TrEMBL record:
<keyword id="KW-0805">Transcription regulation</keyword>
<dbReference type="InterPro" id="IPR036390">
    <property type="entry name" value="WH_DNA-bd_sf"/>
</dbReference>
<keyword id="KW-0804">Transcription</keyword>
<dbReference type="GO" id="GO:0032993">
    <property type="term" value="C:protein-DNA complex"/>
</dbReference>
<protein>
    <submittedName>
        <fullName>LysR family transcriptional regulator</fullName>
    </submittedName>
</protein>
<keyword id="KW-0238">DNA-binding</keyword>
<dbReference type="InterPro" id="IPR000847">
    <property type="entry name" value="LysR_HTH_N"/>
</dbReference>
<dbReference type="InterPro" id="IPR036388">
    <property type="entry name" value="WH-like_DNA-bd_sf"/>
</dbReference>
<feature type="domain" description="HTH lysR-type">
    <location>
        <begin position="1"/>
        <end position="59"/>
    </location>
</feature>
<dbReference type="Pfam" id="PF00126">
    <property type="entry name" value="HTH_1"/>
</dbReference>
<dbReference type="InterPro" id="IPR005119">
    <property type="entry name" value="LysR_subst-bd"/>
</dbReference>
<dbReference type="GO" id="GO:0003677">
    <property type="term" value="F:DNA binding"/>
</dbReference>
<comment type="similarity">
    <text>Belongs to the LysR transcriptional regulatory family.</text>
</comment>
<dbReference type="GO" id="GO:0003700">
    <property type="term" value="F:DNA-binding transcription factor activity"/>
</dbReference>
<dbReference type="Pfam" id="PF03466">
    <property type="entry name" value="LysR_substrate"/>
</dbReference>
């Protein structure tokens, strides 16, 4: 019979691409990882890795077994939770990751309803950018991650991770009070080509969504500052140091600024919940239902 512990070792070798990487992730020595792989090959009766002097790669059988390992580990975790009487959604632990502006209203709305119904669930909340925390969902260290994806800067979810779409969130033009463009219901980026801008960093590259949108409109925005913290962006705009594109969630309740809709290609971001469909945590589905409900109520108020 195959050992679940050794299957986990094989899975980490597959994910990290090396014995050293798996050893670091599992907090084992490289020799211990090698030993566990050798024992797993004995149990499987087939070679799972090809070893060279300075490298290692999985065989075809190793790839197939690694692909099934997460399913096996999820089933074992589910059985263990049943034995520990944690199969009800009002007990156990729920590990939730989220990006900053989701923590202004979306996540609190969902958690308020969820905790009122399931007060016995222990919550572990982790703040971070989607690209930083998605590997934790893949590894099973987070149950669910509230994510965003800019239409102009898309990304692909890791294998085994599903993104449940919640709503589309528009980008809004944020200006200081008294700005002439603030009296218009809609503005194009080309109307503000000579303005200084406060913008973000890109997800995988230095190019921000503003710069991508500007390129499609034939302009190169003048960037005065870059910040991924919308409190900083709004503060600089409020002080008259520039204008900015900010997603609706980042503007909710902000005072001392003017906000209007902006016309342009794909100026919105998709908000969703990233999770593993095989995750056996019984509290997960209940929470996602509350997250859907909060999204429906909140999206009505977004401009």
């Amino acid at each position: 019979m195959l050992s679940s512990h050794r299957l986990k070792v094989l899975l980490e070798v597959f994910r990290t691409g090396s014995i050293a990487g798996a050893a670091k992730s599992l907090r084992l020595s490289p020799s211990a990882v090698s030993h566990q792989l050798a024992r797993l090959e004995e149990e499987a009766g087939v070679g799972l890795v090809e070893r060279a002097a300075h490298s290692l790669r999985l065989t075809a059988a190793g790839h197939r077994l690694a692909g099934r390992a997460q399913e096996v580990l999820d089933l074992i975790e589910s059985a263990e939770k049943d034995l520990l009487a944690q199969a009800r959604a009002d007990a156990g632990q729920l590990r939730i990751g989220f990006f900053a502006s989701a923590g202004y209203r979306l996540l609190p709305m969902a958690l308020s309803s969820f905790t009122a119904r399931h007060p016995g669930v222990e919550l572990d909340l982790v703040l971070g950018q989607p690209h930083e925390l998605l590997p934790d969902v893949e590894r099973g260290e987070l149950d669910v991650l509230v994510v965003f994806e800019h239409a102009l800067d898309p990304w692909k979810a890791p294998k085994g991770v599903e993104v449940v779409h919640l709503f589309d969130e528009p980008q809004l033009l944020v200006m200081p009070l008294g700005h002439p463009a603030g009296h218009r219901p809609r503005v194009r980026l080309t109307d503000l080509a000579d303005e200084p801008w406060i913008t973000t960093f890109g997800t995988e590259t230095p190019v921000s969504v503003l710069e991508r949108a500007g390129a499609l409109e034939g302009i190169t925005p003048t960037i005065r500052c870059r910040s991924d913290h919308y409190e900083v962006t709004l503060g600089l705009v409020r002080a008259g140091l520039g204008v900015a594109l900010v997603p609706s969630l980042g503007v909710q309740g902000a005072a001392g600024i003017q906000v209007c809709q902006v016309e342009g290609p794909k100026l919105y971001r998709r908000v969703g919940a990233a999770l593993r469909p095989t995750n056996p945590n019984p509290a997960l589905r209940a929470f996602v239902d509350y997250l859907r409900d909060a999204s429906a109520r909140l999206s009505v108020t977004l401009r």
